[in-house]
Design goal:
CATH architecture of one domain: Beta Barrel
Distance between the termini: 28 Å
Shape: globular
Helix content: under 10%
Number of helices: 0
Length: 358
């Protein structure tokens, strides 16, 4: 189990005194039902968590007391998308001999947990959600996209399948980018769902992100990271890591890359040169969360946590391995320097530098 030291402002994972990178456990909510994988989000005031029995709960961000719970039925098939007017989530009905599986997008009130509207989607095992020009975009794992009005749930446009997704999509106000298992990188117009560009890749893409120059960066199964320019699909530069890329994240200073070689890399978005690299004790499966100038990553499987200085690559703090399995692969930002994680039996809020530190 985790060995943590009692501190004045919560519980610290560090033994050498408080600093800006020190991890503090601020609050814990024991869960009687196991949280669903990846169904965790926050708007700063509340933390929203879904469970394996199809229930979604709103927890007060400071105390993690239950504000409301709603039983949606079925199983969660997406993450939680937080909007100003509510939260959106996709659930799948149970598949039986008599009834085929159906997928439903819902907009749920953040105040009451009541469903405002629901929309049937083309059925898929998994969906990814994003915001585009005030609308809700859903992309099924089989590659079909639906853009729905967030206020009414009416469909603005819908596409057929572009192929089975091999990456999480990245969303912007102008377009959506994703990779498919048949080694294609698509950029899709946010205006009408048409294809802006279709780029064949040498290897299967595994992660994509938009870059600050309006181009995009893609990682693949062989460890390559490539920057594609905004004006065309020509490769600007390429970086090679030691194993399959699991995430690429654009920042103002460069691009964070995690790989199955157990390294996190920080590379220049100008030419792909390595600014720093940091070997960790295990694999970072889905990237991490930048909080107050630090990258917080969860080592899924080992169930440990690292805090890495984004400027230097130095480890500022760490939580040792636990026998409580992580359910969230990436921490969820709450507010200030706070973030939430989910395990098989709890939801927990941590803070960098102390629970009262902003």
């Amino acid at each position: 189990m985790l060995t943590l030291l009692v501190a004045a402002a919560g519980v610290s994972a560090q033994t050498n005194g408080a600093n800006g990178a020190a991890l503090y456990k601020c609050s814990v909510r024991p869960m009687t039902t196991v949280p669903a994988m990846g169904v965790l989000a926050s708007d700063g005031d509340r933390v929203y968590v879904g469970t394996l029995n199809g229930t979604i709960m709103a927890l007060e961000a400071t105390t993690l007391e239950v504000a409301w719970r709603a039983e949606l039925g079925g199983e969660f098939a997406s993450d939680v998308l937080v909007l100003e007017i509510g939260i959106a989530v996709v659930t799948n009905s149970a598949l039986t001999d008599a009834n085929p599986q159906s997928s439903t997008l819902r907009l749920i009130s953040k105040e009451t947990g009541i469903t405002g509207w629901s929309l049937k989607l083309p059925s898929a095992e998994r969906f990814y959600l994003g915001k585009i020009n005030g609308s809700i975009a859903t992309i099924g794992r089989e590659g079909s996209i639906t853009l729905a009005d967030r206020a009414t749930g009416q469909i603005r446009w819908q596409t057929g399948s572009f192929g089975k997704l091999s990456t999480k999509p990245a969303f912007s106000e102008e377009s959506v980018v994703f990779g498919t298992s048949d080694k294609v990188l698509f950029v899709i117009s946010a205006k009408d769902g048409s294809i802006v560009s279709r780029q064949s890749a040498e290897m299967t893409p595994t992660s994509v992100t938009f870059s600050k120059d309006a181009g995009f960066t893609a990682g693949d199964e062989r460890g390559n990271v490539s920057l594609f320019g905004s004006s065309n699909t020509k490769t600007v530069w390429r970086f090679k890591s030691g194993a399959a890329v699991t995430s690429v994240t654009a920042t103002d200073e460069g691009i964070l890359v995690s790989s199955l070689d157990n390294f996190v890399y920080f590379i220049s978005d100008y030419n792909g040169d390595v600014i720093w690299k940091r070997r960790l004790s295990g694999r970072v499966i889905d990237g991490g969360l930048i909080v107050g100038g630090y990258l917080v990553v969860l080592i899924y499987g080992e169930n440990s946590t690292y805090v890495v200085d984004v400027k230097t690559g130095k480890v500022g703090d760490a939580m040792p391995a636990s026998d409580r399995d992580f359910v969230s692969r990436v921490p969820v930002f709450v507010r200030d320097k706070r973030f939430a994680i989910a395990t098989t039996d709890s939801v927990e809020v941590y803070a960098l530098g102390g629970c009262d530190t902003k």
